[in-house]
């Protein structure tokens, strides 16, 4: 269970990083599509929440 949670935390962190980089590259490219930027921001926030929640669960399991 702990191994699966560790892998899920890592995947959630990598997904968050990917969305963050996509947003940064979109802004740097000067495309100026505010809807896409807003969507990427929402995805990043959601993925960060998932990563933190999984991390908290993992820490609770490791504490026992």
Automatic annotation (TrEMBL):
Keywords: Membrane, Transmembrane, Transmembrane helix. It comes from the Bacteria. Residues 1-64 form the HIG1 domain. It holds the Pfam family HIG_1_N. The chain crosses the membrane at residues 46-62. The keyword Nucleotidyltransferase does not apply. This is Twin transmembrane helix small protein. It comes from Neoroseomonas soli. The lineage of its organism: Bacteria, Pseudomonadati, Pseudomonadota, Alphaproteobacteria, Acetobacterales.
């Amino acid at each position: 269970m702990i191994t699966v949670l560790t892998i899920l935390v890592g995947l959630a962190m990598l997904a968050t990083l990917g969305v963050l980089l996509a947003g940064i590259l979109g802004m740097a490219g000067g495309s100026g599509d505010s809807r896409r930027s807003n969507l990427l921001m929402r995805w990043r926030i959601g993925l960060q929440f998932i990563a933190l929640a999984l991390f908290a669960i993992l820490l609770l399991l490791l504490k026992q």
